[in-house]
Amino acid sequence: MEKQLQPTIPYRWIVCGLLFLATTVNYIDRQVIGLLKPTLAGEFNWTETDYGNIVMCFSAAYALGLLLFGKIVDKVGTKMGYTLSVVFWSIAAMLHAAVKSTFGFGAVRAFLGISEAGNFPTAIKATAEWFPKKERALATGIFNSGTNIGAVIAPIVVPWILGAFGWRHAFIWTGAIGFIWLIFWIIYYEIPSKQKRLTKEEFNYIHSDKDEQEELKDKPLPWSRLLGVRQTWAFVFGKLLTDPIWWFFLFWLPSYFAEAYNIDLKKPNLQLVIVYTATTIGSVGGGYLSSYLIKKGWLVFKARKISMLVFAFCVVPIMTAQYAPNVWVAVGLISLAAAAHQAWSANIFTTVSDMFPKQAVSSVVGIGGMAGSTGGLLFPIVVGALLDHYKALGNIVIGYNILFVICGFAYLVAWIIMHFLAPRMERVRV
User: Fold this and answer.
1) What separation, in Å, do the N-terminal and C-terminal C-alpha atoms of the chain show?
2) Are the CB atoms for 297 and 420 separated by under 8 Å?
3) Dihedral (CA of 266, 159, 113, 106) sign
4) Does the pLDDT at position 409 exceed 70?
5) Whether the predicted pLDDT of 307 surpasses 90
6) Hey, what domains does the chain have and what are their CATH numbers?
């Protein structure tokens, strides 16, 4: 009998690749409107406040969706949870092409927000199912880098589609990608206990964390139990204070470069490509750092916290962007901050599986994600009002400079609160 060849790539990393591709598609779909903002603002006569309200519709629905999907995924599992999310968000993305009013954009953005919210609760739960603790931050950093790859691809592809075919086609083409990904997800994904392509050795390695072995029989924890522990609130405040900063980077950076440096957003944007490429490095590097420290013998909580503190300090220099002598210095400062956010994100997500049993991971990610999106819901109101105020005074860039100062302090404040709520990130017991 011919000897069966062993796979050269451990199957858990193939799963990580699927999560990466889904996250990439997720962010391409949500980024399109930011790149089309000048065109859509001209066609529909939007003010900065109008655009802020549209972003708010997405954020509000996303917050609700995170809470709902967190619970749904813990009940129906990762395979079905992702399938439902991708089907509905792809339909929502394509429906943007049929909109004919500002109200219509608010409605379809809400539909997109609630359905896209399934991505992170499902991906984090899948990571907890497929990776031991010492690899989770790296795996999270890799799939989370899809947010950056999506943000790199979109500034190249969307302006080209806009120039060649018009803005409606930009929504249709990007929205259709999710259905292609779904084919591979249905064929190749199962949880480890049901995955026939998985070797026994890799299965044992995935389940090698001793403090989790007894938890495999536990039932999902109710929200009332989760909201009664400090560890949940540590994650909640960490997301509440930092997620809105990423929303700001995602939805307003194109406009910032256009206003401050007269960048033409109808052409492929090298500045945005550089910023979001840097965030890819930050996401993977941030996940690698804490995973490396754990493999070197550091306690899990110490590796996560020291890494996150380093990343919090890396955001601070963005406050000096207002003094940048040219666009490339500003790009460098913003790139450092955006990369640090993604490094922070790779680690803060992993703290959930560090502190909670696998049966509760999606629910906690949903609760914290809802808090982050609530911040993302409120922050655009401040951003829109601030930018409109300074635009009326003839210098909108001052408004952006104030916002960069807020960004610079947000992560340090979040780290301090998290430290006091969960100083050693003790594991929650049922």
Assistant:
1) 49
2) no
3) positive
4) yes
5) yes
6) 11-191+219-421 (1.20.1250.20)
Taking only the tens place, the pLDDT of each residue in 245-295 is: 988 887 788 888 888 888 876 676 788 888 878 888 888 898 889 989 988
Rounded to whole angstroms, how far apart are CA atoms 67 and 365?
Answer: 8
Label each residue of the chain as H, E or C: CCCCCCCCCCHHHHHHHHHHHHHHHHHHHHHHHHHCHHHHHHHHCCCHHHHHHHHHHHHHHHHHHHHHHHHHHHHHCHHHHHHHHHHHHHHHHHHHHHCCCHHHHHHHHHHHHHHHCCHHHHHHHHHHHHCCHHHHHHHHHHHHCHHHHHHHHHHHHHHHHHHHHCHHHHHHHHHHHHHHHHHHHHHHCCCHHHCCCCCHHHHHHHCCCHHHHHHHHCCCCCHHHHCCCHHHHHHHHHHHHHHHHHHHHHHHHHHHHHHHHCCCCCCCCHHHHHHHHHHHHHHHHHHHHHHHHHHCCCCHHHHHHHHHHHHHHHHHHHHHHHHCCCHHHHHHHHHHHHHHHHHHHHHHHHHHHHHCCHHHHHHHHHHHHHHHHHHHHHHHHHHHHHHHHHHHCCCHHHHHHHHHHHHHHHHHHHHHHHHHHCCCCCCCCC
Instruction: Measure the CA–CA gap between 130 and 367, rounded to whole angstroms.
Output: 22
d(CA 401, CA 295): 40
Q: Please, which residues have CB within 8 angstroms of residue 395's CB and are 6 or more apart in sequence?
A: none
Share above pLDDT 70 across residues of the chain, in percent, rounded to a whole number: 94
Q: Taking a C-beta distance cutoff of 8 angstroms, is the pair 340, 311 a contact?
A: yes
CA distance 269 to 237: 34
Torsion of CA 384, 24, 64, 239, to 10 degrees: -70
In our burial notation (b when 16+ CB lie closer than 10 A, e otherwise), range 376-405 reads bbebbeebbebbbebbeeeebebbbbbbbe
What pTM was estimated for this model as a whole?
Answer: 0.77
Give which of 233, 242, 22, 7 is closest to 123, Cα–Cα.
22
